[in-house]
Amino acid sequence: MSTKRKTYSAEFKAKVVLEVLEAALTLAQIASKYELLPANVKNWKKMFLENMSLTFDKSKVVKEYKDKIEVLQNSNDSLAKKVGNLTVEKDFLMEKLQSLVSSKTRKKFVDTKHELSLNQQCKLLHIAKSTLYYTHVKRFSSEWEIKLLNEFK
What pTM, to 2 d.p., does this model score? Predict the structure, then answer.
């Protein structure tokens, strides 16, 4: 039976790393004290030492993230505009399609080999999916067919 993977908070990791840096105990002793792998403690210490300068130079990191956020927001805004324009265009074309073309003709626009699903195509063309499968049944028109039908009743 496998044990569940443990996750540790940033505060706990910082506490362990600070204890290692105090050098009162060895890394292996501290790892066994907290029931951790020495490799994990060593990695935490390495990450802490690499990012230690960020503690005193927050403005640089914050500026980088703010710049990234601004670029992403601008990109998001332009994409939202495009989506809005495309939605308006689609609605306009759908309105015109419905008013200019009969449902029988719109039914012919459905392409079973297209990457859009049949449901989606029918929704866009404003036709019921059941109309795709419906075949018209010819009514009895000749007297002979009507007589034949009456004989079987």
Answer: 0.42
